What we know:
The protein is mainly α and about 350 residues long. It has helices spanning about 25-35, 60-70, 75-80, 95-115, 120-130, 135-145, 155-165, 175-185, 195-215, 230-235, 240-255, 265-280, 290-305, 315-320, 325-335, 340-350, and strands at about 5-10, 15-20, 20-25.
Amino acid sequence: MRIQNTYNKISGKYFERKSGMVMTIREQLELREVEYLSPFATLSSKSKGREREEEQCDVRPVFQRDRDRILHCKAFRRMKQKTQVFLQPKGDHYRTRLTHTLEVSQNARTIAKALRLNEDLVEAIALGHDLGHTPFGHAGERALNEVCPKGFKHNEQSVRVVECLEKQGQGLNLTWEVRDGILNHKTSGKPSTLEGQIVRLSDKIAYINHDIDDAIRGGILKQENIPKEYLDILGETTGMRLNTMIHNVIINSMDKPYITMSKEIERATAGLRKFMFEHVYLNPAAKSEETKAIEMVKNLYQYYIDHMDKLPEKYLQRIDEGKSTKEQNVCDFIAGMTDSYAVKMFQEFFIPESWKN
């Protein structure tokens, strides 16, 4: 029997009519997941749900809805002005925290689609995994970790952003699976879903390769500097390495309850990552501005601790309501800054007016 989709003007919902059944588009999509996705996939209809119950959308399954919420939130837009690796690079083609996020998302979606896992869940986790990153990349993260009494980890801050900072303190009320994937995306993390495992690995695949590209562009690294033992296995170019790594993940994870690489590719990837830490991430030439950035963040933290009245009213209100401590509030505010806004605030508080021109 032919399936007919109709729109009910009174309820404002779309329906599928087949053999007397009435289904919303969301229910149709959930049914297709059951019929098509791998037995190891996380089904939208089986989500552990949200902290606050909501009426279901008639068109979008829960993970697609989460993806949309992340895409439209303010923290996502700010990532376009946050450092990935290189502080204030001279050129338009270096990665930012936002472009890194998009590359992670694309890698992860490719793998998820091939393995018949939940692409909506993968995309939501990928787009949200770095929402809590500080200005000035990991330099800013280290600075806040040193001065905040409870420490600072960007993955935990990303969860804090979606749970209680976005939407004027209401949070995005995302599903448990998306929040779990965001929290556990670091190398040391243990995501509960295969979709979260895909993002965790795709993050590493993305930053190793695009950071090599940026390091060569910035003159920090030369192609001939990269150990040939890794290039022979993974590929000479960024495209070749991405192709090798992503194909390898797909082939070795097919019809398995976990996401993995072959031992050979895993060792080469780990070796290349170690090489990048030694020659780029910790290279004084690449990180020459980091000391300044770290001191800037530390000074901003202490200034706001001493001048709480300089924080926006909504932050002060959270203290009055007992929802946050003074130190946590300052940490939240600074972590949410873009690079340019942090510099602007530092200049306003610490640079004499006569020196600014």
